[in-house]
Amino acid sequence: MIGGALHPSRPAATVPAWHAADDGDALFGIEAIARYLALPFLDVRTMIGMRSIPTGKAGRSHTARRSTLARFMLDLERRDVPAEQIGPEPFDVGGDDALGLLSGQPAIAAYLSCSWAGVRHRRAALDLGVFWIGKTPFARRASVDRWQAASAGESRSSRRLATIHAGRVALAQPGALVGAKAVGEYLGAPPQAVFRAIYAGRLPAYRVGKGWAVDPATIGARGDQPHGENRHGQC
Please, are residues 48 and 55 in contact by the beta-carbon 8 Å criterion? Predict the structure, then answer.
């Protein structure tokens, strides 16, 4: 620009409508996009270069919309993470750090104050939900907080029992009823009646670890299956 006028050999650039009249939803520059996503600058630059997130260009600047990024990330999260684990959605599209993303196992581990192996254990045994962009696991802080709150409500013994039961299910035949509780719910009988029927040889069951499993096909037509107890505690 010379003397306040555009150089005559350079035509005036077309300014995008959203740049000319910022509606509060626009982000200009990688730094602003990274702040909104709560991710490192280099991570966001790499994601933009690989076209992993929805962005545009205004001149030489990378641009994005808060609402578009929020919908994109939330759709990915809903695809991979159980609904009961998903935290509050970032309705305030104008605030920085609204999405609060964690990118990769190191970032998730640092947020949980555990090791990388601890993240893998929480995902495999404790159902910590993550979503994926390419080969990188992501999580939202709000959803991790919700998962932690739910996990804290479980006693250590209940988590141990759940882990043991999951191991027995893995050892059992596909479709088997594992544990007296599951067998009882299938037959409409209390667990005590199920145990008595197993030990009396009236219910075909087999061992899985230190527990019991039953194939539903073997008890469907049997007339001597256990029933609910009467008021005297008899079947």
Answer: yes
Question: Tokens for 183?
Answer: 């067998």
3-18 tens-digit pLDDT? 444 444 444 444 444 4
Termini Cα distance of the chain: 95
Q: Is 28 helix (H, G, I), strand (E, B) or coil?
A: strand
CA 32 to chain centre: 26
* C-alpha span between 123 and 35 (Å, rounded): 27
Instruction: Identify the pLDDT of residue 141.
Output: 93
Q: Using alpha carbons, select from 183, 200, 191 the residue that is nearest to residue 229.
A: 191
Give dist(CA 177, CA 104) in Å, integer.
37
Please indicate, yes or no, whether the overall pTM of this predicted structure exceeds 0.70.
no
Helical H segments across the chain, by residue range: 17-20, 30-37, 41-49, 66-80, 104-112, 116-125, 141-152, 156-171, 180-187, 191-199
Q: Do residues 143 and 85 lie in contact, with contact meaning Cβ atoms separated by under 8 Å? A: yes
- Closest to 53 in 3D by CA, of 99, 119, 120: 99
**Which alpha helices (H) appear in 93-227, and where do they start and end?**
104-112, 116-125, 141-152, 156-171, 180-187, 191-199
Kind and range of the H or E run holding 133: strand 131-133
Closest CA to 138 of 119, 121, 115, 118: 119
